Structure formats: structure tokens, C-alpha cells
Task: inverse folding
């Protein structure tokens, strides 16, 4: 029997289990990886309301990462909510120090599905100024960025979406999720650093909105990469897995089938 790859999620804790590291580990395990988790934030939320977010001290996050790498071989990491770009940059540097070939999938969550603004809650508007050095450095260090349409619009407010896509894909691979598109809802697009563009259309029709669907998709991509699939196939399979979760029931909390 082939050993499962260790997949690390660095994300927030959602008590409802629909999003964050709980949803990530459910996804990783269902796709036949082994989920490791480091918590970046404790949230007070359920599937429809997020009241507040308590950030974990960055030194605690670093120490948890270090002890996991001391024990396990980790080649693929998914990152969700982090306090700000500076903290994220520090976390990424620790990952690279532990494994120079690490592949990082970053889901740049700026708001929850219940419209809670994570960065605004930090009372530091500079956290959203992605034109600063920290975010540019982050793009150079990660393997894949997975924003939705609402997120990519806010990453570079001085650019159009088309200009932002070009800018980001010159630095890293970009998987643009289509769940929040005004037209062609569900159509995702993959832009590679090599200049290629692929369209991934929706297959499932009987889907309903789910709390944490972006977390599921990004952790699924990471796991399929860990299982040895090339980027395009990993994104395609992750999309199909996410669609199964979206069609699993008509509530906001999807089921994961092993």
C-alpha cells in the first residue's frame, strides 16, 4: 500500500467545520492525503455568521511549523487566512527554510463568506496595500494563488482584472475561481507562469452554495499535487471534487465522501 503524502494546511479554525483547517483536513483525507494542520486564528463563527477573529501569535505558528517539519516530510502546503501580508511572508520564509523545494498554494482570503473582513478587523489599512513589498515577495515564493473574483478585484485596486491577471501570472501560477462571477458562474481559469491559459467549466448542475467552498478547492488542489498530478490535472480534479461537495446536500455545510 502506498503511503499517503503529508499535506500541511496553515489556516484558521472554524467551529462549524465548514471552512478553515477542519474543512481542509476533511478534504485532504478524503482525497487520500494525510492532513497536518497549524492554526493561524481562532474564529467565533458558524456557517452563517462570523463574529470575531482571534489571531494566533506568529511565533507560535512558526514553532508548530518547525516541529512538524522536524518529524514529517512535507512538500506541499496550503495557506488560508493569515493576519496580514507581513506575517504571511514570515511564515513562508520558515517553510522555505525547512524545505527549499516546498510548493505553496495560497488562498488569499480577505473576507469570509458571511462578509467578515479579516484584515479590516486588524485595524491596519496597510495590511491591504498589496503594492507593498511583502505581497510582491509572497507572489515570487508561492506556487499557486487561488483567489475568487471578489478577491482578485481587491488585490490591485489600481489595475483592471485583466491587468492584475497578467501581473500575477508573471510571478506565479494563478487559479481564478469563478464562483463569484457575474457571468458564467462556475467557470474557473488557470493561468500559468509559462503564459498558458486553461478554462475549466462546471460539470455538476445540481449544486448549492457552501460555506468554505474556497477552502475545499484550494486544499484539494494541494492534495492532488501531493499525489503527483501536474498542475492542470490537479486543478481539474479539485474542481470536480469541490462540485461533489457542493452537490452533496442543500445546506451550507457540505459532505465529504471518502
Result:
Amino acid at each position: 500500500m502506498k503511503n499517503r503524502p503529508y499535506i500541511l494546511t496553515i489556516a484558521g479554525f472554524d467551529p462549524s467545520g465548514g471552512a478553515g483547517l477542519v474543512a481542509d483536513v476533511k478534504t485532504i483525507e478524503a482525497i487520500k492525503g494525510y492532513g497536518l494542520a497549524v492554526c493561524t486564528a481562532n474564529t467565533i463563527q458558524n456557517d452563517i455568521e462570523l463574529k470575531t477573529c482571534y489571531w494566533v501569535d506568529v511565533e507560535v505558528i512558526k514553532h508548530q511549523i518547525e516541529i512538524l517539519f522536524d518529524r514529517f516530510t512535507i512538500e506541499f502546503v496550503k495557506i488560508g487566512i493569515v493576519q496580514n501580508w507581513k506575517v504571511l511572508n514570515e511564515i513562508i520564509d520558515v517553510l522555505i527554510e525547512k524545505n527549499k523545494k516546498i510548493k505553496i498554494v495560497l488562498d488569499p482570503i480577505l473576507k469570509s463568506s458571511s462578509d467578515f473582513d479579516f484584515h479590516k478587523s486588524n485595524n491596519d489599512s496597510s495590511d491591504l496595500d498589496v503594492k507593498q513589498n511583502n505581497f510582491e515577495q509572497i507572489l515570487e515564493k508561492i506556487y499557486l494563488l487561488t483567489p475568487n473574483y471578489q478577491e482578485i478585484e481587491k488585490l490591485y485596486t489600481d489595475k483592471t482584472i485583466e491587468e492584475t491577471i497578467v501581473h500575477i501570472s508573471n510571478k506565479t501560477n494563478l487559479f481564478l475561481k469563478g464562483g463569484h462571477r457575474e457571468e458564467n458562474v462556475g467557470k474557473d481559469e488557470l493561468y500559468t507562469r509559462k503564459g498558458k491559459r486553461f478554462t475549466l467549466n462546471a460539470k455538476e448542475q445540481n449544486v448549492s452554495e457552501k460555506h468554505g467552498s474556497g477552502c475545499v478547492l484550494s486544499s484539494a488542489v494541494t492534495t492532488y499535487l501531493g499525489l503527483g498530478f501536474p498542475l492542470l490535472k490537479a486543478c481539474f480534479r479539485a474542481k470536480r471534487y469541490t462540485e461533489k461537495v457542493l452537490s452533496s446536500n442543500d445546506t451550507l455545510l457540505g459532505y465529504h465522501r471518502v
